[in-house]
Structures are given as structure tokens and as C-alpha cells.
Design a protein that fits this description.
Layout (H helix, E strand, L loop, with lengths): L7 H17 L4 H5 L1 H32 L2 H28 L2 H24 L6 H28 L5 H29 L2 H19 L16 H13 L1 H17 L5 H7 L6 H17 L10 H21 L3 H29 L5 H30 L1 H22 L1 H4 L7 H16 L1
Helix pairs in contact: 3-4, 3-7, 3-8, 4-6, 4-15, 5-6, 5-8, 6-15, 7-8, 7-12, 7-14, 10-13, 10-14, 10-15, 10-16, 12-14, 13-14, 13-16, 15-16
């Protein structure tokens, strides 16, 4: 009957609007196609949630026990050496041994360290030194595990789905990053540090259980045995790929100069808003979550290198602004904007790594990647804590942001291959795609 339904043009408009909305949402293709990716994603979501609880609780406990910004910043220093040594060696192990076994062993070890933090917090007089010892050991285990995790993803996800997998993994991290710190502020304030560490322990038990269902991932026939020579081989490959090298140094510069997390407890006090500490820790992951939830557009971007540089500069500008403003709400806003920029950079760095690095080198290059996105934040904690003790908290934050912008701009000028990278024409991306399609076609 005439008039019994909506006009055709209204239906078409509604359909177009729905298509535009779906184009913004994360691409679920890797989740649908790979059971192992689903298990790994869920395990990471749960353990990350708990890790962020301890991430907030440890500096708060150090602040309570010492009252020193430098002491809080020193956490980055004790984590640095294990991160460098075990990150590089962990990459060699990931290429030479079963990645599933490495992931399980290190995840279980992290759970034991959470138990140690819990026991220390329950003592009548908690000691300071266990916090540093656990931080160092946790850094070592995380550095051994992360290359195996990163090297496993290209094995369990189709080549064309790798950018979507990077976005989904970013979403996983940011969900825990937003919920964990926000909840930690409440848990620490009302239930105590022990409750935060206990919850972290429970999440590791659940994640280990999920990882038990992963399929074995043995090394390839051409894999090199772990040694200094094999590590050097990976380093030579990275050095020869200047666009790849550029992603590492840009991220290191951004984190060294503009990572303010170590001084956030003191910034919250200076602003007269100690209640905002949990929100400050959650703001950067919240910005990352906003990007992850609307990351459908990332699959349509092909100039990955240029996007990495612009996003890193945006991160620096946002952190500089957070150090200048005097309203806690504006600080939270700029930290959130910084998180948006950092996530954009992270998605496209991961896409470049996953789509251009051959499988036999993936673990060792993942170890170098680990240094690029982990050493920077650790050094950034040391820099921000030391600068805060010397020149004040706010100066530490805004000056670091401006130094980040200057360093990233200089690197962009010095690395034309990074600025010119295009996933559609890069020889390494095309070669790896053809190699993987050939294997899948004969499998």
C-alpha cells in the first residue's frame, strides 16, 4: 500500500549513515577469523587491566613511603637495564623457541611478582626496596614476553588483517588502561594498596588459563639460535631499513621528553586536586581508547610514516599544554588529547612493523621495538622526576612537551624515507605480502 513504509530516499540516507558509522568502528576481521587471536586478545585485556592497577599503586606507595619525586622517577631507572638486556635477548628467544611456551612462562612469573607486592603491602611496615626489586624483575619478564607476543600476531592473523589487528590490540590495551587507573584511584583510596595488588594477581591467573588454549608456535626451520650474533643480525637489518629505524627513534624521542607519568601524583597535589590522580593516569589511555573505538579510518591511510611523525608531534604539544594550564579539567583534557595522538602513532608503527618484517626476524625486531616504546617511557620517568625535583613539576611537564616537538620535527627532516613510506608501494611490504600469500595459497 502507498505510504505503508518510509520513503526510498530516507532508507538510502539511513543506510549510508549506517555505513559511515561502521567504517569508523574497529574492523573485527582478525577476531572473527582467528581463534588464537581471540584467546590472546582476551588474555591481554584481562592481564593489562590488573597491570594498570599496580601501575598506579606502586608510585602511590612510593610517594607515601618516601615523599620524593626523584624516588618515584627512579622506578624508571631500575627498570631500564633489565628492559634493554632481556628485550634484546627475548627477541632472539622468540625466533628460536616456541612462542606459546615463552608467553605462558613469563605470564606466570608476572603473577608471582604481583603476589610479592601483595605480601609486602600487607606487612605492618612495608619496605621500599621490594618495590624496586619487583619493578626490575617485572621489567625483565615483560621484556622476555613482549617479543614473543608481537611475533605471534603475524602468524595467527592474515596479512591484510594486520592493520585491523593492530587497532584491536590497541583497543584491548586502552580498555584496561582507562578502567584500571580510574578504578585503582578508588581502590587504593578506599580499599588499600593490598586490594589493588590482589586484583592484579587474580587477573594473571585468568590470563594464564586462557593462554593454555593457544596452539603451539614453534620456530621456523630457518630460525637462528639465540646468541649475540643473531641479535646483531637483527640490529643490522633494522639499521638498513631507515624508515623502520625512524619509527623507533621518533617514539623514543617522544617518550623520553614528554612522558609525565612519574610526576602526576605531585601535579595533582600542586593543583589542589589529589582526588584527580586516578583520572590523570586514565586520561592518556582514555584518549587512546577514543582512537581505537573509531579506528576504522586507519585502514584507508597508506602514508604510515608521515602519520607517525605528525602524531608524535601532536603528543608533545598536548603534554606541553597540560603543563601550562592551571585547571585540573584542562589538564585532563590535554592528557586525553595526548593519548589520542600517541595511539595514532602506535597503530601505524605497528602496521609498518607487521607488514614489512620477515617472519624469521620478527622476534629480534620485536625486541628492538620493545626498546623503542619501553626504554623511552622509562627514561622519560627519570627525566621528568629529576626535572621536577630541580625546576618544579609544571616546568618538567611543559618543557618536556616542547622538547618532544622539536626533536620529532628534526627527525622528520633527517629521515625522508620515513616521511615517504607508502604501504602500497614499499618494496618490503610488497615482498612480504607476496610471500605470505604464496604460503597461504599452498597451505
Amino acid at each position: 500500500m502507498p505510504g505503508s513504509g518510509p520513503p526510498a530516499d530516507a532508507v538510502d540516507a539511513s543506510s549510508r549513515q549506517g555505513s559511515r558509522l561502521r567504517a569508523l568502528l574497529p574492523d573485527p576481521a582478525p577476531w572473527r577469523a582467528s581463534a588464537d587471536f581471540r584467546r590472546l586478545w582476551l588474555a591481554g585485556l584481562i592481564s593489562n587491566f590488573g597491570t594498570f592497577l599496580s601501575f598506579v599503586a606502586v608510585p602511590v606507595q612510593l610517594k607515601e613511603l618516601t615523599g620524593s619525586a626523584a624516588a618515584v622517577g627512579a622506578i624508571g631507572a631500575v627498570e631500564l637495564v633489565p628492559l634493554i638486556v632481556f628485550g634484546l635477548y627475548g627477541g632472539a628467544l622468540a625466533d628460536a623457541y616456541d612462542k606459546r611456551k615463552l608467553i605462558l612462562a613469563t605470564e606466570a612469573g608476572q603473577g608471582l611478582l604481583s603476589a610479592a607486592l601483595l605480601l609486602n603491602a600487607l606487612l605492618p611496615g612495608p619496605a621500599v626496596w621490594p618495590l624496586y626489586v619487583v619493578a626490575a624483575l617485572s621489567s625483565a619478564l615483560g621484556s622476555l614476553q613482549r617479543p614473543a607476543l608481537d611475533a605471534l600476531v603475524p602468524r595467527i592473523v592474515a596479512h591484510d588483517h594486520l592493520p585491523a589487528a593492530a587497532s584491536l590490540n590497541s583497543l584491548r590495551w586502552t580498555v584496561g588502561g582507562v578502567a584500571g587507573p580510574a578504578l585503582a584511584g578508588v581502590v587504593v583510596a578506599y580499599a588499600g594498596l593490598g586490594a589493588a595488588y590482589g586484583a592484579d594477581l587474580v587477573t594473571f591467573v585468568v590470563s594464564v588459563t586462557l593462554c593454555l588454549g593457544l596452539a603451539a608456535s614453534p620456530p621456523g626451520h630457518e630460525a637462528a639460535k639465540p646468541s649475540l650474533r643473531s641479535i646483531a643480525e637483527g640490529a643490522r637489518y633494522a639499521w638498513g631499513r631507515k624508515e623502520l629505524l625512524g619509527t623507533y627513534v621518533v617514539d623514543i624521542a617522544a617518550m623520553v621528553f614528554a612522558m609525565p607519568l612519574a610526576v602526576l601524583p605531585f601535579l595533582a597535589d600542586e593543583l589542589g586536586a589529589p582526588w584527580s590522580l586516578g583520572l590523570m593516569y586514565a586520561a592518556v589511555p582514555a584518549g587512546a581508547l577514543l582512537v581505537s573505538l573509531t579506528s576504522g579510518w586507519t585502514s584507508r591511510i597508506h602514508r604510515h610514516g608521515r602519520t607517525v611523525v605528525l602524531a608524535a608531534a601532536g603528543w608533545g604539544l598536548a603534554i606541553a599544554a597540560a603543563g601550562v594550564v592551571r585547571s585540573v579539567w584542562l589538564v585532563l583534557l590535554f592528557l586525553t588529547l595526548g593519548g589520542c595522538c600517541d595511539m595514532v602513532s602506535g597503530i601505524f608503527r605497528a602496521a609498518m612493523w607487521n607488514q614489512t618484517i620477515p617472519d624469521e626476524l620478527r622476534g629480534r625486531l620485536a625486541g628492538i621495538e620493545l626498546l623503542s616504546y619501553s626504554v623511552g617511557p622509562q627514561l622519560g620517568q627519570v627525566r621528568s622526576g629529576s626535572m621536577a625535583a630541580w625546576r618544579g613539576v609544571r616546568t618538567s611537564v611543559w618543557s618536556g612537551g616542547l622538547l618532544c616537538v622539536a626533536a620529532v620535527a628534526l627527525l622528520g627532516l633527517c629521515l625522508p624515507s620515513l616521511m615517504g613510506y607508502d604501504a602500497r608501494t614499499n618494496e618490503h611490504a610488497l615482498r612480504l605480502k607476496a610471500r605470505r600469500e604464496g604460503r597461504e595459497g599452498t597451505g
